[in-house]
Amino acid sequence: MKCPIKEVLKTKKSVMTDHFYIEENGNRRYKEIHAHPILDHSGEVIQLIEYIIDITDRKLAEEKLQQSEQKYRTLIDLIPHGIEELDLDG
Fold first, then answer.
1. Strand partners for 33
2. Structure confidence by residue, pLDDT tens digits, 49-65
């Protein structure tokens, strides 16, 4: 993970990065870190605003969606002629 503070000081522009860690209980947690510089009249960083958003639910949902897509792509690839749906009259 790149350090948002170092990036803001280097670029003097806003930075956003993702970070994940594993809690003591083994659960994964994902954070989105936003850092924004406050510049003085000469363009130097004099303060920094940083906030963190917990994006764990979003990341886990994205992972499940990717797994589901892969499972169904594999299933479709294994069916050589497709699927037909018939009613009781054929």
1. 17, 52
2. 999 999 999 999 999 99
